[in-house]
Design brief:
The structure is a single chain. It is built from 9 helices and 15 strands. The radius of gyration is 22 Å and the shape is elongated. It has 2 domains: 2-152, VC0802-like, CATH 3.30.2130.30; 174-335, Rossmann fold (3-Layer(aba) Sandwich), CATH 3.40.50.150. The longest helix has 16 residues, at 109-124. 31% of the residues lie in helices and 28% in strands. The chain has helices at 12-22, 67-75, 79-86, 109-124, 174-185, 201-208, 220-232, 274-288, 302-312; strands at 2-6, 26-32, 35-40, 54-63, 95-103, 127-128, 137-143, 146-152, 191-194, 212-217, 241-243, 256-262, 289-299, 318-322, 331-335. The chain is α/β, with parallel strands linked by helices. The strands form 2 sheets. The protein has an 8-stranded mixed beta sheet. It binds S-adenosylmethionine (SAM). S-adenosylmethionine binds at residues 168, 170-172, 195-196, 198-199, 201-202, 217-219, 222, 244-247, 262, 264, 268-269.
Amino acid sequence: MKIIAYTVKGLEEVAKQEIQNLVREVNFVDLKPKRIVFETKYSKVLTDLKTVDDICLLLATGEISRVEDVLNIFRDINLKSAKEQIEQYRKVNNTFSVTFSLAKTKIKVEELQSSLSKVIGEDYNWEYTELDHSNFDIRVFIDNKELYVSVRLTEKPLFHRSYRTVSSKGGLRPSIANSMVKLATLGDKGIVVDNFCGSGTILAEAYLAGNDIFGGDIENMAVEATLQNLSNLGCKTESKIKRLDALKAPWKDKQFDFAVSNLPWDKQIEIKSVTDLYVGSLSEYARILKPDGRLCLLVSKPDLLIKHAKAFFPNKKIEKFQIGFLGQTPSIITII
Ligand SMILES: C[S@@+](CC[C@H](N)C(=O)[O-])C[C@H]1O[C@@H](n2cnc3c(N)ncnc32)[C@H](O)[C@@H]1O
């Protein structure tokens, strides 16, 4: 069966690696920005993927430039048989929705939405639900002239996590947090620290991956959010999560194996001096990490961070991956 995995732009290789580790027999067909197409017989395990945003059954691909081209491709798809396949995973009723991701195309979402909802509704006698995407959700992904039509295997997007009952300003998408944990831990387990924990997404993903976790935030509200989200996982936090200033953290020297953090950037949270923030937090991470400790940091000014990271971690390899997330292009920096 042909599957398409949708990812955050820039994290395709991390997701490919996770798919390879999880699925016994897999044949990769296509890897392009934000999507990976592959074939496998073992599709049920795919819902366990953590670095992927959405996992779907691929129904058709094609070259298109007008709405009519998309409708022609839809006419050749047997949505009834696609629905029967989805019913092997979960119960579905006679409603459908459509999720659009359109880039570099003149086609307008509104026009496509109204034509598709009408055509599918009439051909199959199903009811279109614009707001509820939890039943039979058809995903239309267009990148320039390339069209991918697929249908979601799961009820909710794969990046959804039920432990996240509280969020805080600048909350990170769990699939990015999970990728960052993987980039730092490289399959090992240990003690992870996040001194900018916000609502605790990175710590939660690190905990779920079998690590011990410590961290905190300068805002009381963020610490409370983290405590709540971690307690939803049954994680005992005792004195491991605190209100703290990452520039003067209350941790012992050489206490941790990994530091994974999403540093604040101006668009989300006001900061006085980015240089002071980067230098102060790197200096603390250099102190509290073991000598062979590894870091993975998400930042808005990668070159500035790398310049200072070279001074604090002169013997480590530093790599940069730019990602695309909610219209912004921050970078993940690994210091290994
Ligand atoms: C981008 S957010 C982190 C979001 C988090 N990864 C999540 O998923 O919710 C950055 C966090 O850094 C915190 N912060 C800013 N300056 C800080 C400092 N000096 N020490 C500790 N935390 C700080 C902010 O309060 C904010 O919660």
